Amino acid sequence: MAALSIRALSKRYANLEVLKGIDLDIESGEFTVLVGPSGCGKSTLLNIVAGLDHPSAGTVEIGGRVVNDVAPKDRDIAMVFQSYALYPSMTVRQNITFGMECRRVAKAEQEKAVANVAKLLQIEPLLGRKPSQLSGGQRQRVAMGRALVRNPLLFLFDEPLSNLDAKLRVEMRMEIKRLHQRIGATIVYVTHDQIEAMTMATRIAVMHQGSVQQFADPDTVYRYPANLFVARFMGSPPMNTIPARLEAASDGPVVVVGAGRPDEVRLRLRGYDAAAPFVGREVVFGIRPECIAEGSRTFSSDAPVRVEAPVELVEPTGAETMVLLRLGGEPAMARISPDIRPAPGTSAAFALDTRRICLFDPETERLIA
Ligand SMILES: Nc1ncnc2c1ncn2[C@@H]1O[C@H](COP(=O)(O)OP(=O)(O)OP(=O)(O)O)[C@@H](O)[C@H]1O
Ligand SMILES: [Mg+2]
């Protein structure tokens, strides 16, 4: 049984259509991340699941029960918001037990539940403090603790880390992931941060303008983005998407970038049979920056294609060097070894891993192969 099923869900505000027919099935124990740019409808969707907002059409099913007409408190969910919404006059302990107090849970049981989550979240020393005496990360853990004592069918998180500094975000990200691994809870987690999505999710729903563009595991989303939007949204820096032509050769299609130019680049593809109908046509050629490396690099199998290309910009980050180059006249980012610093304005040798490229239909923007 799916923990959460969303069927043909739409939401409009006056004549603004914010959610356009969302269908999602989330299994018990999954960590689903809803990711997409600001304004794409993530919070609206989560609020509708929580019952804080109503859909214009469609249904929400939690644990096999349609909950459209069920009040938020009766939906068996726990939600953590971006603003932790702790009660300022209560101690950490009181914040965590407040919900149980309301439900008249026995004191001994409350004590046990608090002890459990406090240990899990390492907030035992903080139980007597007020929220004003806590750091952002500590408040965040208290908010999480308040949700965890519930043991609900479904946890909903709306950008819970967005108020934290970069270092704490990474720490909390790992902590939440560990938490999921330990308790096996079903989590729907909203973020606009694609790194959070990639690192935490068992499946990612990429949203854009009120629709789900792709719903798949992180590796699939990264390797086979369903369309150009997903290709450009997931990954940092994003996938290079370059206009090209597909030509025929005796043993498979060839991608030609900058056709007819003196610096045209030709890439022979293997195992791209789905691209056959596009031979002789324009395509968009997608290649991740890490698939363009320094010329001496060998990739695990297959000989890479080696090209000489002009270098425009070089950005050393410490762990790697990012290079903006021109492939057949088109700009492309490469991720090369940190030890190599080609000089801007010169040409350098690059190796392209052609087993991992993507081809998109320029009209529909969908992945071809
Ligand atoms: N009460 C409302 N009335 C009218 N429009 C609204 C209302 N609430 C949200 N919207 C609009 O709905 C769209 C989706 O908003 P939503 O808050 O779901 O986006 P989001 O994906 O969570 O964005 P963010 O990443 O910025 O939090 C936005 O265009 C927003 O302006
Ligand atoms: Mg939001």
UniProtKB/TrEMBL annotation:
One of its GO terms (cellular component) is ATP-binding cassette (ABC) transporter complex, substrate-binding subunit-containing. Residues 4-234 form the ABC transporter domain. GO terms for biological process: carbohydrate transport. It comes from the Bacteria. Keywords: ATP-binding, Nucleotide-binding, Transport. GO terms for molecular function: ABC-type transporter activity; ATP binding; ATP hydrolysis activity. It is a peripheral membrane protein. Its main location: membrane. It holds the Pfam family ABC_tran. Signal peptide: none annotated. InterPro entries: AAA+_ATPase, ABC_transporter-like_ATP-bd, ABC_transporter-like_CS, ABC_transpr_MalK-like, ABC_transpr_MalK/UgpC-like, Mo/tungstate-bd_C_term_dom, NA-bd_OB-fold, OB_MalK-like. SUPFAM superfamilies: MOP-like, P-loop containing nucleoside triphosphate hydrolases. Gene3D superfamilies: 2.40.50.100, Nucleic acid-binding proteins, P-loop containing nucleotide triphosphate hydrolases. The keyword Transport applies. It is found in: Cell inner membrane. PANTHER family: ABC TRANSPORTER ATP-BINDING PROTEIN (PTHR43875:SF14), MALTODEXTRIN IMPORT ATP-BINDING PROTEIN MSMX (PTHR43875). Involved in beta-(1-->2)glucan export. Transmembrane domains (TMD) form a pore in the inner membrane and the ATP-binding domain (NBD) is responsible for energy generation. Belongs to the ABC transporter superfamily. This is Sugar ABC transporter ATP-binding protein. It comes from Bradyrhizobium forestalis.
